[in-house]
Specification:
single chain; alpha+beta; Jelly Rolls; Arc Repressor Mutant, subunit A; 2 domains; 18% strand; disordered N terminus
Length: 301
C-alpha cells in the first residue's frame, strides 16, 4: 500500500468476485459532467480506455490526464483515484484476475510475459500515442458490442481473446524500461522464472519464502531477489505478503469463517498476526472490514 494521505483514505471495495470460471469483468462507465475524486484499491489488475471526454488519474506515484484513445493500467493492490475533467466522458474498464495472465504461455513465444505491462513501475507502463489511439478506440467498441450481447461461455472466451489482442497492441507501441532490457540480456529466461515464482505464490496462497521460491526456479536468493525487483518493482516478500493479506480480506468479505481459521489458511502465525498486518495496510481490523464490506456500521475495537 502507499503512504500518502489519499491512498490510505481510499474506500475499500467489495471483492470483485473473479475466479477461474470468470477471470475477466468488463464495465462501461459514463459521466455526464466533471466529477470530484473517487478512489479504489483491489487485488485484481485494471485496464481502462477513455472513449470520450477526459479524466485525471493518479496511481503508483504518477499523474495522467487520459483522453480519447488513451489507456491506464493498475497493478495488484495499487491504490488509485480519478476525477472526470471533461464531460461527457465514457470509459471502458477491464478488471482482470492476475492468474489468467501470469500462467499464460504460447509455445512459439514462451518468454512473452502477459503480466509485464501491469507490474513495471507506473511511470514506465505502456501509453498510446498518435494513430494507435484510434486503433484502441476501435478495439474498445468491439469489446463493448461483445459485452452488450448475450452472456455465454463462448462470449467470455472471446472477451479474453480480445484482452490479449489489446495487450499485444500496447506492447507494439511500448519501449521496455532500460532496467528490464538489461535484465533480459543477463538472463533471457528471467521472465519465465519470475512468472513461475508468482505462480507458486498463487498456488501456495503466498506462504512461501524468497529462499524457497529462488530454489524452486533454480536461482540463488540474491539473483532471484534482484530479478524480481527489476521486473515487479517490489520485493518478492512484499508481493507475497500482499497477496496473502488480500486473500484473507476476500475471505472476510465473502463468508462467516472465523478469523483464526482465515489466518491459518493464509499462512499467518495466528489471528493477532493477521490483525496487526490488517491494521497497517487497511487502517482497520478484520472485523471492522467484514462489517464494512456488508454495508454494516463498524464498532470501535
Amino acid at each position: 500500500m502507499g503512504t500518502t494521505t489519499w491512498q490510505r483514505s481510499v474506500p475499500l471495495r467489495r471483492h470483485q468476485g473473479l475466479d477461474a470460471q470468470r477471470p475477466l469483468m468488463v464495465l462501461r462507465n459514463r459521466h455526464a459532467r466533471g466529477t470530484t475524486y473517487a478512489g479504489d484499491v483491489h487485488y485484481e489488475l485494471e485496464l481502462g480506455i477513455v472513449l470520450s471526454g477526459a479524466m485525471k488519474r493518479e496511481s503508483g506515484g504518477t499523474v495522467q490526464v487520459a483522453r480519447r484513445g488513451q489507456v491506464w493500467l493498475c497493478g495488484m493492490w495499487e491504490p488509485h483515484r480519478y476525477r472526470v475533467t471533461q464531460g461527457p466522458c465514457e470509459v471502458l474498464v477491464l478488471v482482470v484476475r492476475p492468474q489468467c495472465l501470469a500462467g499464460l504461455r504460447f509455445e512459439q513465444e514462451p518468454e512473452h510475459r502477459w503480466l509485464l505491462p501491469f507490474t513495471v513501475p507506473a511511470a514506465q507502463r505502456p501509453q498510446v500515442q498518435g494513430r494507435a489511439r484510434e486503433e484502441v478506440v476501435a478495439w474498445a467498441k468491439r469489446m463493448a458490442r461483445l459485452v452488450d450481447g448475450p452472456r455465454t461461455r463462448v462470449q467470455r472466451l472471446e472477451e479474453q481473446v480480445l484482452l490479449l489482442e489489446l495487450l499485444l497492441l500496447l506492447r507494439r507501441e511500448w519501449r521496455m524500461p532500460s532496467a528490464l532490457e538489461q535484465a533480459v540480456e543477463r538472463d533471457p529466461d528471467h521472465g519465465v522464472r519470475i512468472d513461475q515464482a508468482i505462480q507458486l505464490v498463487f498456488e501456495r496462497r503466498g506462504d512461501i519464502t524468497a529462499i524457497a521460491a529462488a530454489r524452486a526456479v533454480g536461482l540463488s536468493r540474491n539473483r532471484f531477489n534482484r530479478l524480481f525487483v527489476d521486473l515487479m518493482g517490489d520485493s518478492f516478500a512484499h508481493f507475497a505478503a500482499g497477496y496473502r493479506l488480500g486473500g484473507a480480506a476476500a475471505d472476510l468479505a465473502r463468508g462467516e469463517e472465523p478469523l483464526k481459521a482465515i489466518a491459518r489458511s493464509w499462512g499467518f502465525t495466528d489471528a493477532s498476526h493477521l490483525v496487526r498486518r490488517f491494521r497497517l495496510s487497511y487502517g482497520c481490523t478484520p472485523a471492522q472490514y467484514r462489517l464494512r464490506m456488508r454495508g454494516l456500521p463498524s464498532v470501535a475495537e
